[in-house]
């Protein structure tokens, strides 16, 4: 009975004892190699190093606040990270996100002690245990001074790698970085280590969900032991797939996101996401022009002469795609068509380069490389992504219309100014022929976009001719006249019964076709030609051989009053 009572008292005494603490004065702490002398020594509690809360945070440059009501500590780091710890609670809140911890803060003899690894997590520092010297080694430089700086260094290293192989640098894109941050948080929260999200989404899916006009989307996503940015980048560039994404020839933009996750044992983990993309071409004419350029690049690589661009063939191609897309009876406007190829292609993203790859896989490649064909028009229409089948793919209708020089007259050469002079045409005749052909080609360009033709306005033409002559005789070039007049003032002071919409000017156009091509390849001047509100046009040509630019051309667009 006596032994039982002794045993009971022994058990009660054992249960009443606090957690066993090994307070060892020989446990040291260094921060970036500098030994720390705290007023309360570091202590090992249940195998984990606990340090005085205020001393360690302030040694790392943070400001500390104590909330007596909630018994919580809020530390604000120099990089803006905010760490919140609560006495006895097995979690830490860093920048609003809660993480589980193995050792909560404790109060011993009136002093608040915190787990050193938890402090490092909130301060973006790295912690190692030097067992031989019984020293906690804290390094604040491994994840840079801030998360944003670390991300920027990875971005700069990416551009350095591209520069070494002769590729242009990428431009930082905040929207891509936001997509990367969303994915890296998904990786941390769900234990992922790849580009596939917890919902099965791909890098392309996430960029599309963010409604970014990006194509050629790719991404790098991985987990690595925390280290210097150069060490982390080595993991990127030494992987073939990641290296291919970094060195993408078509890539223009990038964004980077990282998250540091501490571990109780071993090195902390760093989750890294890079996103890459290229600005999508949304202008239909620019898109078709890019396909035209890629086709000519293919011909040149095979030793063939590039195609000549033909507006009538281009309009025919656009009409063909429109007819097939709408299943209407629209007829083509091209003269003497020779060959046509129409393709319906389903792609994951709308880019000229992807479409060119599909074109090359069809029998159209033989026609692309046919040396007897010299002129080409390209037309396309893209349907909306196929959401009904849940694959998000886009159906694209493409028409390629080819012609030989025998069926399509060489219009540009027919109106080439030196040829007209040699043929004996007078200056007045050349000006009238030039202006009328530019007028025809302007309306042909509008027809390709199903816009109504413009009406010729003699008063606007007179104003345009006077401005072209003014530019030539005074060796100036711009929309302001030699007398300081603006295009609006010149129209208002004329007899024209229209409101000015816009004005295009051009120097040294040696043929009407060359003039239209140059204007249509400029986004601002193309917008004038394709303006829906315009109803009238006047065109003025002036040739002065001894002037700075020799040939001057003005288009004035108006809207009926």
| Average pLDDT over all residues | 79
Termini separation: 117 Å
- What share of residues is helical? 25-40%
Q: Please count the helical segments.
A: 19
- Structural class from helices and strands? alpha+beta
Strand content: 25-35%
Strand line-up in the sheet with most strands: 1-4-5-12-11
Q: How many strands, what sense, and barrel or not for the largest sheet? A: 5 strands, antiparallel
Tell me the total number of β-strands. Answer: 26
Rg estimate, integer Å = 36 Å
Question: What's the oligomerization state?
Answer: single chain
C-alpha geometry: elongated
pLDDT < 50 runs, ≥5 residues: 1-24, 324-337, 384-390, 406-413
Task: Note the topology.
Blueprint: H1 2-16, E1 21-22, E2 28-31, E3 34-35, E4 43-45, E5 48-52, H2 53-59, E6 63-67, E7 72-76, E8 82-86, E9 91-94, E10 97-100, E11 106-108, E12 111-115, H3 116-123, E13 126-130, E14 135-139, H4 147-164, E15 171-172, H5 174-190, H6 203-209, E16 214-225, H7 229-237, H8 240-246, E17 253-261, E18 269-279, H9 284-301, E19 308-309, H10 311-326, E20 339-347, H11 352-361, H12 364-368, E21 375-382, E22 394-403, H13 411-414, H14 417-422, H15 427-447, E23 455-456, H16 458-473, H17 487-492, E24 498-507, H18 512-520, H19 523-529, E25 536-543, E26 551-560
Parallel strand pairs: 2-14, 15-17, 19-21, 23-25
Antiparallel strand pairs: 1-4, 2-3, 4-5, 5-12, 6-7, 7-8, 8-9, 9-10, 11-12, 13-14, 16-18, 17-18, 20-22, 21-22, 24-26, 25-26
